[in-house]
UniProtKB/TrEMBL annotation, chain A:
Name recorded for this polypeptide: Uncharacterized conserved protein
InterPro entries assigned to the protein according to its UniProt record, in alphabetical order: Dimeric_a/b-barrel (IPR011008), YCII (IPR005545)
Pfam family, one: YCII
YCII-related domain boundaries: 3-112
Family: Belongs to the YciI family.
Gene3D superfamilies: Dimeric alpha+beta barrel
Organism whose genome encodes this protein: Geodermatophilus dictyosporus
From TrEMBL, chain B:
Protein's UniProt name: RNA polymerase sigma-70 factor, ECF subfamily
Organism per entry: Geodermatophilus dictyosporus
Domain RNA polymerase sigma factor 70 region 4 type: residue ranges: 121-171
Cross-referenced Pfam families: DUF6596 (PF20239), Sigma70_r2 (PF04542), Sigma70_r4_2 (PF08281), TPR_2 (PF07719)
Gene3D superfamilies, alphabetized: 1.10.1740.10
Amino acid sequence: MARYLILIYEDEAQYATATPEVLGEVTADHDRFAAGVEQHGAKLLGGEALEPTATATSVRGAEVTDGPFAETKEALGGYYLVEAPDLDTALAVARTVPARFGGVEVRPVMTFD
Amino acid sequence: MSAAADADAVAAAVADAHRREWAFVLAATVRVTRDIDTAEECVQEAFAAALTDWRRTGVPTRPGAWLTTAARRRALNALRHAGVERRHLPLLVEADVEAAAPDPRDDGAHGYPDDRLRLVVTCCHPALDRAAQVALTLRLVCGLTTAEVARAFLVSEPTMAARLTRAKKKIAVARIPYRVPPPAELPARVDAVLAVVHLLFTTGHAAPAGEELVRRDLVARAVQLCRLLRGLLPGDPAVAGLLALLLLTDARRETRTGADGRLLLLEEQDRSRWDRAAIAEGVALVREALRARPPSRYALQAAIAAVHAEAPAWADTDWAEVVALYGVLASVWPSPVVALNRAVAVGFASGPAAGLAALDELAAEPQLAGYGYLPAARADLLRRLGRYAEAREAYTEALLLTPNAVEREFLAGRLRALDAGPC
């Protein structure tokens, strides 16, 4: 078994202007996703949604700046941590992550032994 | 086993086994090591050992089985001695169930399970970029050295070595599984393999740069790989379609350039020198491939190649059939390049004015901007319509966009002919 971090990158502007109905759908989509992970032979270990990049503060050495580390149209907006036997399983799970305003990136978690 | 053999016969037998058995031996050895680099080393050592051992013992009746046994024995020794180091190696993921169940594709002639399909689908996994897929396939499935793979893609050996290392590291660290995907996923994965084979073939068939039009080595590797896939997936119509396309296209290889290296158009080629055996095999495969619904893009491209291959002379070409096939192809595989080829066929089926009208619809297509074949096709239609000044402009534009020396010479020749002509 290995752990993979699924990073969700989406266009924040779309959420800023989304109707309450759309936001309700997104929440329901995430609930459905979480309930379905084990069907793929994987396990959901954790996950969080992040506040928008307007609330981010970057720190590099002594320098503190307002804003995210890199300004991009699609920004990191949340993540899931899953346990899966191989990349194909992790990708099958990743395909079901709701990300209607962008997409996701799958990264293996480094192991030390 | 026969008696001692002379050095030349042994070298030839080892080279032959390398061509035929490399993928089988490596795939069977990876199953033992679960680490591609170690498996490659063991297989290389087994081939080196064959060069000396076979001189003493004679060439074994089943060289593939001998090499597999030798490589796997080395792998088991390597595992025994690796100890602590190996615990830090990320190992390939295999599904345990598969190891337990006998594989229906097992090849009794070798006495080992045939793992070549899992090797090739792993090399062409969609999580690897296309350049890495092609490089890995040439290295691991065809057994080319890193230097040979680098030469095939006109990059330096260190660049190619880095590309191969990065791809192998991703397979291990991200845990791309070493297995044949379940039936529901297999067609998409086979498509990726076919795209790699097709890219290899087209790169060889019309070299993107350089002095020669055709790179024989790449074409031969592509056909060999496609035959391997055909053997592994005999019922797959897309595989049959691609093999047909490669055979029918390559059947014209001897006639595509003149004695002076000049590019010869289909119209000018000596059809008596086309490879009839390849055409017969290709046509039979097209018939089989076209039975799938919908037919694959390769089957349709092969069907178009078959129309040309079966026409006794250029004037006998069934252009209406070619136009119709391009129409079906555009529906299963929409692409501006297909639309361009269809327009050229319309130019022969219904005359250059109709062809030009079809071509003009594509002028604004962003994907064709910078594509040299568009102004070249336009130039030819304008020339046939007697609009020489415009034809000259279009040939000049095509020349600016064409890097291959043989194709450039063809376009320059057309320009010279226009300058000397009636206008």
